[in-house]
Amino acid sequence: MENLEKLTKIDLNLNNINEIDRLLNQIGPLPIMRTEYHKGKIFDRAVRIKDDEDDFNTRCRLSYAPMEFNTKYLRASTPENTMFYGSVLKDNFTLDDHAHTRITACCETSELLRDNTIKKGERLMIIGTWEVQELITLATIFDPTQEYNIDYLEEIKNSYIIFLKKYPELETKGIEYLKFLAKEFSKDVKDGQNHEYHISSIFSTIISNTGVDGVLYPSVRAAGLGLCVAIQPRVLNKLKLIGVRKCIIKKENGQTIITYLKACDVEDDSKPFKLLEIEEYLKLKRK
Predict the structure, then answer these.
(1) β-strands 214-218, 136-140 pairing
(2) Is the pLDDT of residue 215 over 90?
(3) Is residue 10 a part of any domain in this protein?
(4) 48 within domain boundaries
(5) From the DSSP assignment, how many helices (H) and strands (E) are in the chain?
(6) What is this structure's pTM?
């Protein structure tokens, strides 16, 4: 556990990238639960749009940050390793559930929703709804010692504890490392403090090269009430864009309202799509 102690004491302000990478690569065998998402699973991804920016009309504009714009360390990505970020919609979802994942996606993208000190403002967002087409496997990050309000995390946590009982030689290591990693993934990082993401982002890069397609973790921005994915671009062909929404987020006196402005369903995401005014879209859906 000496390696873990060094990781917990490393000074992230010093940008010790090489040392962090070395220590993470020295962890060795580590029991981590995998989550499998099969065809039909739904993700939502939110992207901020400028007030004077044209509506998006292509799949790539809603996927992941191109390398030339991927210049910062984020929760699960490095400047050398971009990721597709999204929020997860649970199985057998309702309309209310889908609204919740879209809010989670917006929270992860816009400081207006996640920062309680901001009392007033507006943001335009584009939300893409993606459907899994082929099996995607994600390393699942959670704290085995914590209780979660998300049923899935409670289930997988309990399964993890039962699994560890069969391998007592890995029990302490598994719990302590996963607890540490969960803490790194749950940091509420302020703008300009991206060095705080060094451990979680480098770990995501390493684990994504060991047979999984990315990571799954609780949403920090949505106060742990949602689940987020970070998926390697190399497997983005396993996802299909099936719907797009444009909305405006308005916040006043601490109250937030999300209003949909435009929408469209996407039948073939290899072709450009066109957003319709929300009234026109709803009229077509009722036919």
Answers:
(1) parallel
(2) yes
(3) no
(4) yes
(5) 8, 10
(6) 0.91
